[in-house]
């Protein structure tokens, strides 16, 4: 009897255990389904933004015109060459050194020229003495002719000798002046205030007539010597502003204005040279640097957006627009870039008055809720938090 009772208890316990294990998967499935539903129904995180985090799209003047490329060159530049054949005995200035007008830049050997000058001066003195003697002879013959003691022929001969002596003296003086000028040319001087841009010779070099010796430029006379495509030159006028950048000066802008437009295009490149003078004292001090910019020939109103608000992803561009408390990703078509302000022209995607995020974050979601708080409300909330 006891054995039957124990057997019945064991069978009942086994049946209870099997029932619990059969219900466990059902409970697990229900729990997973509830978690997924809760995650789906969970709202997106609401963004808190202040007025400084957004900006309103407005229309502004956009300058446009033909592109101009070229280099920075000095208007005052001197390529000093040898005017006499001689040996270079001393170079006094190096590249980059400042010079004043009249400063000696280099010296040439003047030994032979000094000898020529001495000879010319001695010949001049001899010619002066010959002329004086011929003049005395002429005066004496004229007196004797008046007394009837000499013939007219003798007076004419004396006059011829005097005239020849005058010619010899003039020639001797000319040779003396030429020798003195040659002597001064052995000292190469700066023609104006500036800096030495290139030294072509060294001590001991032989300088033939016409050989390049040294170059001097005036850095205060820098200008932009550029070219414009011939099909765009029709809109370029003297006095128009030009905004350009110079290689080596990063993103620093330079302002200028058109000074002259050449009347003829280059026969090979079909480019027209345009000279641009700097509009202020902000100018590079190095000549020969490449420069590129735009002639602001026209101006029109257009929607503009700063580069900080623009997100570029490959070839596409978009912004995050805030409308009725909701964040929206808006694709944009952009045009030209305003060189003065750095802003981009908006061709499509936005309209005037739209509000966009000034500096978007990478975690933004399309359709995300946004709460804009004023600075006063933010300060009040901060005060209450600190009070607690």
From TrEMBL:
Entry's family note: Belongs to the membrane fusion protein (MFP) (TC 8.A.1) family.
Keywords, alphabetical: Coiled coil, Signal
SUPFAM superfamilies cross-referenced by the UniProt entry: HlyD-like secretion proteins
Residue stretches in coiled coil: 117-175
PROSITE patterns, A to Z: PROKAR_LIPOPROTEIN
NCBIfam families xrefs: RND_mfp (TIGR01730)
N-terminal signal peptide: 1-24
Start and end residues of each CusB-like beta-barrel domain: 231-298
Keyword Coiled coil found: yes
Name of protein: Efflux RND transporter periplasmic adaptor subunit
The organism of origin for this protein: Duganella lactea
Domain CzcB-like barrel-sandwich hybrid: from-to ranges: 78-217
Stored InterPro entries: Beta-barrel_RND_2 (IPR058792), BSH_CzcB-like (IPR058647), RND_pump_MFP (IPR006143), YknX-like_C (IPR058637)
Domain YknX-like C-terminal permuted SH3-like, first and last residues per copy: 303-370
Gene Ontology cellular component terms for the protein in this record: efflux pump complex
């Amino acid at each position: 009897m006891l054995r039957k009772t124990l057997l019945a208890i064991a069978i009942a316990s086994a049946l209870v255990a099997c029932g619990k294990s059969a219900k466990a998967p059902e409970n697990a499935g229900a729990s997973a389904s509830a978690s997924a539903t809760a995650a789906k129904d969970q709202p997106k995180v609401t963004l808190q933004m202040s007025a400084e985090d957004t900006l309103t799209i407005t229309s502004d003047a956009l300058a446009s015109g033909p592109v101009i490329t070229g280099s920075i060159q000095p208007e005052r530049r001197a390529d000093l060459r040898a005017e006499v054949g001689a040996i270079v005995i001393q170079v006094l200035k190096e590249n980059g050194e400042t010079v004043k007008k009249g400063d000696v830049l280099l010296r040439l050997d003047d030994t032979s020229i000094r000898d020529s000058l001495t000879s010319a001066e001695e010949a001049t003195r001899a010619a002066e003495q010959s002329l004086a003697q011929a003049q005395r002879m002429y005066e004496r013959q004229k007196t004797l002719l008046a007394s009837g003691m000499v013939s007219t022929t003798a007076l004419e001969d004396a006059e011829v000798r005097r005239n020849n002596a005058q010619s010899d003296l003039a020639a001797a003086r000319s040779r003396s002046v030429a020798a003195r000028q040659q002597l001064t040319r052995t000292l190469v001087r700066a023609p104006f205030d500036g800096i030495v841009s290139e030294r072509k010779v060294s001590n001991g070099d032989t300088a033939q007539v016409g050989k390049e010796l040294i170059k001097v430029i005036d850095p205060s006379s820098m200008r932009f010597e550029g070219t414009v495509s011939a099909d765009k030159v029709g809109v370029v006028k003297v006095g128009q502003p030009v905004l350009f950048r110079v290689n080596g000066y990063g993103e620093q802008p330079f302002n200028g204005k058109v000074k002259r437009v050449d009347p003829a295009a280059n026969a090979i490149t079909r480019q027209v040279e345009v000279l641009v003078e700097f509009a202020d004292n902000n100018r590079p001090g190095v000549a020969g640097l490449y420069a590129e910019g735009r002639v602001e020939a026209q101006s029109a109103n257009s929607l503009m957006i700063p580069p900080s608000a623009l997100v570029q992803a490959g070839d596409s561009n978009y912004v995050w627009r805030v409308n009725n408390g909701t964040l929206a990703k808006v694709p944009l078509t952009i045009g030209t870039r305003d060189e003065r302000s750095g802003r981009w022209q908006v061709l499509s995607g936005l309209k005037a008055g739209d509000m966009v995020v000034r500096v978007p974050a990478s975690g933004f979601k399309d359709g995300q809720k946004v709460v804009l708080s004023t600075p006063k409300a933010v300060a009040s909330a901060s005060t209450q938090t600190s009070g607690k």
